[in-house]
Amino acid sequence: MEPSRTEVNPGGSVVLACRIYNKQGECSWQKDGKPQGMFVGKYEWAGDRDAGDCSVRVMDAAEMDDGGWECQVTASAFTAQDALTSRVARLVVRVAPNRPQMEVDKQAVVAGHNFTVKEEENARIRCVSRFGNPPAVIKWFIGESSCILQA
To answer: Does the bond joining 134 to the residue before it have cis omega, within 30 degrees of 0?
Structure first.
């Protein structure tokens, strides 16, 4: 079982699952392509590694934990070609986006105020919400029709 995309709130804990049938080598993890050590109270083994459960528990999740995680198992012997590496699984540490802001031709519209666009003139109207993780989903309505956009 390979780890999969997982979301966690800041300060929360999450387990990234990794189980290997008939595991012979040693478990390890990489985050963003770099070896990741185990640290008491932060990154700890979540399962019985001898039984093939190489899952890791991430505690007190923070922005630094956000990224691509890979489970690995070393080869069973020097001459063996049985080392394993999982696909990269994204760990998303959620961050609330800023409140949506309307812009007309790159000029911010003050919340609660109207804006005017002259008939038959083009204007670029945007609704932006910055800094969210994952990015905010913005939905526009024009009459009964809607359009969903990623921020």
So the answer is: yes
